[in-house]
Structures are given as C-alpha cells and as structure tokens.
Design brief:
Number of strands: 5
Largest sheet: 3 strands, antiparallel
Radius of gyration: 26 Å
Strand content: 25-35%
Shape: elongated
Strand order of the largest sheet: 3-4-5
Oligomer: single chain
Order of helices and strands: EEHHHEEE
Length: about 140
C-alpha cells in the first residue's frame, strides 16, 4: 500500500474544505483512504482522482460498504425474552457462524442450524435436554 502525502489544504469560511493529496505508485500498488460511514455520502459526491504521470491510468476506485459495528448492532433486531432467552436467541441467528469450545479444549466450527429437544432418562426420571445443531 503506497502512502499519500498532504500537498495542500484549503478551508473556506463556510466550513467547506478540500485537500490535495499526492503520492507515487509503482506497479499494481494502490492508495487507501479511510472515512467514517457518515462521511461517505460527501466523499463519493466530491472525490476526484487524477493521474498526472501521463504514463499510467486509474483502473478503478472502490469502497467497502460494510457498516461500522455500532451501526450494524443498531440494525439488528433481536427479541430476547425473559424466559428461555438463549434458545430464543439461537433460533433468531440461524445460519450464523460459530466456534464452540467443548470439553478438553477441542474447537468445532460451523453454522447454526437450530436446537433439538432430546428426551433422556436419568435416574428413572425423564429429562428433556436441548442440543445445539450446527453444520460443519
């Protein structure tokens, strides 16, 4: 990843500003700029990229549309009831990837399929257990 250097900053009295960044790229290297999610609308409307070398070209500009963790958590609507909350949560996140650590420190990774109820007899008493079902 090549580094960009700030060549010029111009700030207007209305709060608008622009920055001129400059850098040198060799081969298939690239530049990376980081912005907050709420700044992306303005960035996409005003970003201007120019190759002044006259030897190369700008093949593409792209951005990662992933949400910040805080915004992602706000967008997830989970209903966690007071009773049977773990089972309810598991059923709402079917398909999520998990890594489980079981006795002996062994790890198992897979995707959540659901929960099954299994009846067993322990000391002549019928007990219903829940089993987490994952696909590996």
């Amino acid at each position: 990843m090549s580094k960009l250097k700030v060549k010029k900053v111009i700030i207007f009295k209305h709060g608008v500003s622009y920055y001129i960044l400059e850098g040198i790229i060799k081969g298939t290297d690239s530049f990376e700029l980081e912005f907050k999610v709420d700044e992306m609308n303005d960035v996409l409307k005003s970003l201007f990229v120019l190759d002044t070398s006259e030897k190369g070209y700008i093949s593409s500009t792209s951005y990662d549309a992933a949400l910040e963790t805080s915004q992602l958590l706000k967008s997830i609507m989970l209903n966690i009831p007071d009773q049977d909350s773990l089972s309810s949560l598991v059923m709402q996140i079917k398909g999520a990837g998990v890594t489980l650590t079981i006795s002996g420190g062994k790890k198992i990774s897979g995707k959540i399929i659901g929960i099954e109820f299994v009846e067993r007899i322990i000391k002549e008493e019928k007990v219903t257990e829940k089993q987490l079902i994952i696909i590996t």
